[in-house]
Amino acid sequence: MKDIITLGIESSCDETSVAVVRNGREVLSNVINTQIAIHTQFGGVVPEIASRKHIENISDVTKEALKQANITFSDVDVIACTYGPGLVGALLVGVSYAKALSYAINKPLVGTNHIKGHIAANYITNLKLEPPFICLIISGGHTHLVHIKDYQNFEILGKTRDDAIGEAFDKVARVIGLGYPGGPKVDKLAKEGIANITLPKTRFENLDFSFSGIKTAVINLHHKDPNINKADLCASFEKTVTEELLDNTIEAAKKLNITKIALAGGVSANSYIRKSFDKLTEQGYEVYYPELKLCTDNAAMIAGAGYYEFINGKTSDLSLNAVPNLKLE
Ligand SMILES: Nc1ncnc2c1ncn2[C@@H]1O[C@H](COP(=O)(O)OP(=O)(O)OP(=O)(O)O)[C@@H](O)[C@H]1O
Ligand SMILES: [Mg+2]
Questions:
Q1: Are residues 86 and 164 located together in one domain of the fold?
Q2: Under DSSP, is residue 37 helix (H, G, I), strand (E, B) or coil?
Q3: Overall pTM > 0.85
Q4: I need a labelling partner for 328 at 20 to 30 A (CA). Which of 145, 221, 229, 275 fits?
């Protein structure tokens, strides 16, 4: 079969990224222009600034991605762009650019779901991984436990009823003064602490999650005692949320009789969560996650997800629009 070269375009939040991927799994380039330094001044992503920066950067990032992959537009077989979920203004930049490019170079276009992209990051790092498996998507905006039935069919088994886990990490970091983005900072500080503080763990009758209770408990503890040991607080927070993730994931795996588990999304970069899930291999599970660079937003994962849509006959026309609250199923 002829190789398929996908040009992936990602602009759903604060990363402008363009990648070139061969056959959905082999990354030829993955250029990521992150705006973190700009948004740090404001303590979080400012949507209007994110959109403007995407406009300024997208053309140069694309040129760089082609250059690093040593290809030209004529070598591209399909363009995959994120059309949701995400910030509407940010998404519109990538979608408009991808549509214009598709028209100009006369190549097909595939609108791609950002969360399917996070899942597909696993296919790039783990070349032997094939569905079916269970994927725990833990990111800045989502906490989903999903049955990946095949490359196209997904069933959500459980999801957060309030905050996404990444939001909880970021909020905890902000309240205790670690700054933005909080996840990596909590990860680092927790390594110096002991998980000796009891925090509330949520358990529902189904496989849903909740993180607002634990977030509030951490905030209250810090307000009551601003001198509380922050490293211990971070370690305790990580331990409690990881138990919640593990409980639901194991229950889902047992129910479906599936032993393959993959993690995806920015929070799957967390070292404690990875270490804890790794222990499941002692119980006979196979555990997968993307390499660190592919956990947070990038266009290689979008090219990967777009490739599987494309080979299954799905393309988009030039009426493609941004869908900020796009669903997975
Ligand atoms: N090492 C880490 N430990 C914990 N959290 C982390 C770590 N690294 C990144 N994160 C968190 O990951 C989140 C960003 O992930 P991602 O880029 O997937 O989210 P997003 O694109 O903003 O949201 P979504 O993908 O749901 O639309 C942030 O909340 C960040 O704090
Ligand atoms: Mg993301």
A1: no
A2: helix
A3: yes
A4: 275
